[in-house]
Amino acid sequence: xxxxxxxxxxxxxxxxxxxxxxxxxxxxxxxxxxxxxxxxxxxxxxxxxxxxxxxxxxxxxxxxxxxxxxxxxxxxxxxxxxxxxxxxxxxxxxxxxxxxxxxxxxxxxxxxxxxxxxxxxxxxxxxxxxxxx
Length: 133
Prior knowledge:
It is a single chain. The chain has 6 helices and 2 strands; from the N terminus they run H-E-H-H-E-H-H-H. It has 133 residues and is mainly alpha-helical. The protein has 2 domains: 3-61, no CATH class; 68-129, no CATH class. It has a two-stranded parallel sheet. Helix 4 crosses helix 5. The longest helix has 14 residues, at 85-98.
């Protein structure tokens, strides 16, 4: 099953799914970039696509809460996150704080490709709410 099919199935189902507006802004950034897509998607169409995902009744917006920065900073320190891994640590902290599962198609996020992802994937479910995080 292709990524687009999985996304469509998720969005069109009745099951709730979480979405970060930061992720949606990244979608718009990439899909409108002519170095990535030839031709790139027009901005209005990209925004409409993002808004259609965001506005579904089963979409739960996931946003930083009071513990987010603490979790984010800890992830950065423990994994020595730098450069492109910093936004990934930010999103991972969102998932940890909200008790969500982080789903990504980022190839760098595959197991074995970096300590941040291994650390997140190895967290036992009960540690998501742990006060130490």
